[in-house]
Amino acid sequence: MTEEEIRNAANLELKSIGCQYTIMYMSRLFSQADFLAYKIMALTGKVFSKYEVIQVFEAFTIKTVCDWEWYIEKIICECLQKDTSALGGQLSLKLPKEITTDECVAYLNGLGYFDIRSASNLKSVSKKILVDNRNPFLNFDKETSKRIDDYYVLRNYIAHRSNKSKKALTVVYNKYKQETFVEAGDFLLSIDTEKSQLQIQLFESAFWLSSYKILEFLYPNTYKWIMGNEEVYNENCQARFLAIINQFPRPNE
């Protein structure tokens, strides 16, 4: 396909609610990373104390997981409503081939609410309710999934400060060679010595990379247009991505 053909195909994809939600979610993560890097970290010691930065980091940990779960439910519904055969088999019910978004929400939540506890849990649940050719979560790589799983543990400790959540966080710290127990915000503010980045940057980027995997799987022409001829995501890809954000409408939340 020529670049014009790819762009035209991407335009068609961007009319779908799922693609718009994906772009919206990715733009949120981009704005959040920009805020943390250039408005919080850049002013540490000038406007914000270390304690204040730690409080912001911990608050954003909870926000990141909340936004992720919001987005994931939207994408599951987008995939499920076009093919219910896996869900029908799981529930031993004969369901219509296609259902509405509201019906998807009803099936997912039942009398409670849809709860995703980690990336590993998401993969397990998605295998039960989505057919493989409509399941973007199977493509998550192990490193990214591990980061998301560990971020959930950090979130749980921040939210509850219980002995159980502290014990689970201690196990996570051992993975990252954090030998002494520190508060979650302190850990997120520390540098990963192997990758020379803040821990919070590495954790937050895992969510962006996962959403980019979803974009590649479900909306390949949009992905191709953003990547262009580049082998890896760079500033040229970022410029195309920002052009999409500025050009196309996003759904109401």
Describe this structure in words.
The chain is mainly α and 253 residues long. The protein has one domain. The protein has helices at 3-13, 17-40, 50-80, 85-91, 101-109, 119-129, 142-160, 163-175, 184-189, 199-218, 220-227, 235-247; strands spanning 191-192, 197-198. It has a two-stranded antiparallel ribbon with strand order 1-2. A hairpin with a 4-residue loop joins strand 1 and strand 2 (197-198). Helix 1 packs across helix 11 (220-227), helix 2 (17-40) packs antiparallel against helix 3 and helix 3 crosses helix 7 (142-160). The radius of gyration is 20 Å and the shape is globular.
Keywords, separated by commas or semicolons:
253 residues; mainly alpha; two-stranded antiparallel ribbon; 12 helices; 68% helix; 2% strand; RiboL-PSP-HEPN domain-containing protein
